[in-house]
Amino acid sequence: MWLVGLTGSIGMGKSTTAQMFREEGVAVHDSDAAVHEIYRGPQSGLIGQAFPGSVAGGVVDRAKLAAMTLGRPEEIARLESIVHPLVQHMRRAFLEAERRRGAKIAVVDIPLLYETGAEKEVDKIVVVSAAPEVQRERVMARPGMTEEKFRAILARQLPDSEKRKRADFVVHTDRGMEAAREDVRAIVAALAEEED
Predict the structure, then answer these.
(1) What sign does the CA torsion over 144, 148, 149, 154 have?
(2) Is 15 annotated in some ligand binding site?
(3) Beta strands 169-172 and 59-60: pairing type?
(4) Is 12 annotated to bind ligand?
(5) Using N-to-C axis directions, what is the helix angle for 62-69 and 73-101, rounded to 10°?
(6) Is residue 13 marked as binding?
(7) Is 16 annotated as belonging to a binding site?
């Protein structure tokens, strides 16, 4: 089974691209969705213990948690030391299920794939990319996004140009949905061919 890492900087269209893989019949494990599940589930208590006041009614208050961690690398590292192992456990369970199902390709959507060293865990890497002005426009349109938050997020991410250099495949999401869908179809076809 091909294990494909899907990544891209904020605002590049990773979620849309992940959905396109699903539409091509490829299962995708979404790390962001896994984090949302953790934040709403019983493990939210672990975050509440580490960051008092960040959990209300068994659910992590993302705004409060962001305020406690924004621009504070040591606090971000502490949060990641709780969340990342939980996400990795969920990813392993997903991959095991896909292997049992006999899947030929499985995609793991990992926002900070290069930054966390996760590229060593996958066979191929797909980077989702768009022009910087398109990225900025998408990100700044998000509710609650500020210039400061955007800069802080970008500072933690490997530059897009570097990600594209290291990628096995690139999906360009600033050329229209149909062009991105064609990129995804070409990737699925190339992997199916390589396997044969």
Answers:
(1) positive
(2) yes
(3) unpaired
(4) yes
(5) 130
(6) yes
(7) yes
120 contact partners, CB below 8 Å, separation of at least 6? none
Domains and CATH numbers, the chain: 2-26+103-195 (3.40.50.300)
Rounded-to-integer distance, Cα 41 and Cα 26, Å: 27
Contacts 24+ apart (CB under 8 A), 65-68: 66/149
pTM for the full predicted model: 0.85
In the chain, the DSSP E strands lie at 2-7, 27-30, 55-56, 59-60, 105-109, 124-129, 169-172
Q: Residue 183 burial by CB count (10 A; 0-12/13-18/19+): exposed, middle or buried? A: buried
Could you identify the residue written with the tokens 């040591």?
Answer: 74
Query: Could you tell me if 95 and 39 are in contact, meaning their C-beta atoms sit under 8 angstroms apart?
Result: no
Distance from C-alpha of 162 to C-alpha of 1, rounded to nearest angstrom: 27
pLDDT digits (tens, 9 = 90+) for 27-58: 999 988 999 999 999 999 999 999 999 999 99
160 within 8 A of 4, measured Cβ to Cβ: no
Q: For 142-189, how does the pLDDT look when each residue is reduced to its tens digit (9 = 90+)? A: 998 999 889 988 988 999 999 999 999 999 999 999 999 999 999 999
Alpha-carbon span 44 to 79, nearest angstrom: 11
